[in-house]
Amino acid sequence: MRWDDFEAACPRIAGIARERFGQDEVVMLGTVRTDGAPRLSPCEVDVAAGRLLFGMMWQSRKAQDLLRDPRLVVHSVPQTRMNPGGDVKLRGVAIEERDPDVRATYREALRARIDWAPDEPGFHLFSLDVREAIYLRFGDEPVAWRWDDAGGFRELRHPDAAT
User: Fold this and answer.
1) Residue 163 forms part of a structural domain
2) Which residues contact 41 (CB under 8 A, 6 or more apart)?
3) Most distant CA atoms of the chain, gap in Å
């Protein structure tokens, strides 16, 4: 599900994710290496053209991972050990974005954010096809939410809940 469709389907998690990703400007991106082992990499993220977009250096290992096996996980970066803002985790598949209009819109968004954009065609651009989203917050006001395309949004029993 494209980002704009995910925002419509699950505004609670999508809103928190958009806010966090906008503040942090970086996420942890999990991909699958050629040997099947996980790879965890920091990656900048932008929302543009109705998509959650990840620009990557040309032929970077994480880009090569996604070209070979598009499965990925995105995790918000915890602010502190106690992480009062909670954790956002998105799982899905990467879509290589080749459309010139999408790429131009991404470059405009990146330039607006950091006053720089890569030259064409020297970068990879992927969007996330969201399949599952989770939001967990610990502390005084614990929250456990999950969304997936089969079951929709639901509140879960929090891991800290008394048995």
Assistant:
1) no
2) 28, 29, 31, 61, 62
3) 55
Half-sphere exposure of 88 (CA within 13 A, CB side): 24
Is 161 within the bounds of a domain?
Answer: no
**Got the DSSP string for 107-133?**
HHHHHHHHS--PPTTSEEEEEEEEEEE
Indicate the SS3 state at residue 17. helix
Range of the domain at 113: 3-155
- Report if residue 162 sits inside a domain: no
pTM: 0.95
C-alpha 15/C-alpha 138 separation (Å) is: 18
Structural domains in the chain (count): 1
Specify if 160 maps to a domain.
Answer: no
Q: How many residues does the chain have?
A: 163
pLDDT tens for each residue of 3-53: 999 999 999 999 999 999 999 999 999 999 999 999 999 999 999 999 999
| SS3 (DSSP) at 114 | helix
Return the CATH number at 63.
Answer: 2.30.110.10
